Amino acid sequence: MSWIDDFWSRIEVHGENECWPWTGAILAGGYGHVQLRGISTTAHRVAYELTSCVEIPSDLLLCHSCDNPPCCNPSHHFVGDHLDNARDCASKGRHARLATYGRRILTAAQVAEARSAYASLPSTRSGRYGKTQPMMDSFAAKFGVSARAIRKAVDGETWSL
């Protein structure tokens, strides 16, 4: 079996407009991983280059229009730079904007509410009673973010109002 046959045997090829998931090794971000001639690369990049017969310059990305990292369907990809990828991301509402922390949105009002609640707690020599994990967990659940995100917002690490 040639390396090309071996490569394609690890892709579930479906309909022309459907995603073709990679079934081999997966990188932490969900992208298919392959080793070719001792070089690590992504499976969707190899699939694209094989079907288009064009080598993508190393300074360019192969972006997913389907936003499905293991997808290797060449029709779901486009060559672009980091700005092209960021624009694609923003156009789909996946780009962090002003009031975001990761993928969850914190508004200025929520940060102010959390800070106010924290400031109103009684102090001890070691600090406020409320800066405990249970308090941060309750705010995190209320606002749909992580306890770390709330702690950083309350401490002013990620927010300045």
Strand order of the largest sheet: 1-2
Supply the helix-strand structural class: alpha+beta
Q: Give me the Rg, rounded.
A: 23 Å
The SSE string, one letter per element, is: HEEHEEHEEHEEHH
Strand content: 5-15%
Question: Can you tell me the number of structural domains?
Answer: 2
- Residue stretches low in confidence (pLDDT < 50, at least 5 long) are 96-103
* Largest sheet properties: 2 strands, antiparallel
How helical, in percent, are the residues?
25-40%
- Overall geometric form: elongated
Query: What's the number of helices?
Result: 6
Task: Please tell me about this protein's structure.
By secondary structure, this protein is an alpha+beta fold. The protein has 2 domains: 3-91, no CATH class; 100-155, no CATH class. The chain has 6 helices and 8 strands. The chain has helices at 3-8, 43-52, 82-91, 108-119, 133-143, 147-155; strands at residues 33-36, 39-42, 61-64, 77-80, 100-101, 104-105, 123-124, 127-128. The strands form 4 sheets. It has a two-stranded antiparallel sheet with strand order 1-2. The chain starts with a helix and ends in a 6-residue tail after the last helix.
